[in-house]
Design a protein that fits this description.
Blueprint (H helix, E strand, L loop, with lengths): L1 H4 L3 H17 L3 H17 L3 H17 L3 H18 L2 H17 L3 H17 L3 H19 L4 H24 L5 H15 L1
Helix pairs in contact: 2-3, 2-4, 3-4, 4-5, 4-6, 5-6, 6-7, 6-8, 7-8, 8-9, 8-10, 9-10
Length: 196
């Protein structure tokens, strides 16, 4: 309300986006979308491309959470295009990775690998270790998903690749002193799959 009353549209849009993030974390997707869409509208109206890209990414995340991967892809791709246009490599790396994760969820493994590899390459280029760890772990989860259609030696080799990628990512998070229990649990699950 204060940003609105003083005419600070950038602050208003940013605050709305942040409120949307809180509602997403609370599991209220509908309210999160409402705030993110208002944030997007304001960022677009004032020509704040960075804010527009962030809002698009956040809207894509909510749709991903809902399991609407095709719709999330459209928002991620729009976000990535803006980040690329304005030269924000960090934002672009996040968008590429999210596109890859959505593609994996849809069973499009070749596209997922291409996008996750692009995200990892950018993360390494700009030296953002947390993103490098994230995309290594997601590549590991992609290997796990690919293993489901394989058997015998092919399945075992792909599961070993999954474990290797997950362990590399987890090691980066450990180095950054950021425990990632989700990925550690994923790695344990894949190790168990390999033993069966």
């Amino acid at each position: 309300a204060i940003f609105t009353s003083i005419g600070n549209h950038w602050g208003e849009a940013t605050a709305l986006g942040n409120i949307g993030l809180v509602h997403r974390n609370l599991g209220d997707d509908a309210l999160s979308l409402s705030y993110q869409e208002k944030s997007l509208e304001i960022h677009a109206s004032i020509g704040n491309r960075e804010g527009e890209a962030a809002s698009l990414l956040n809207i894509g995340n909510v749709h991903h959470d809902r399991g609407d991967y095709a719709l999330s892809l459209s928002f991620y791709e729009r976000s990535r295009a803006i980040y690329a246009f304005i030269g924000n490599l960090r934002g672009e790396a996040i968008a590429w990775g999210n596109i890859g994760v959505a593609q994996r969820a849809m069973g499009n493994f070749v596209a997922a690998r291409n996008h996750l590899t692009q995200a990892l390459t950018l993360a390494r280029e700009i030296k953002v270790r947390s993103l490098e760890g994230e995309w290594l772990c997601e590549l590991g989860l992609l290997c796990e998903a690919e293993s489901a259609s394989l058997d015998g030696d092919g399945r075992r080799a792909t599961l070993r690749d999954a474990i290797e990628q997950l362990e590399l990512g987890i090691a980066i998070f450990a180095e950054l002193k950021r425990p990632m229990n989700k990925y550690e649990n994923d790695c344990t699950r894949v190790r168990n799959m390999l033993m069966n």
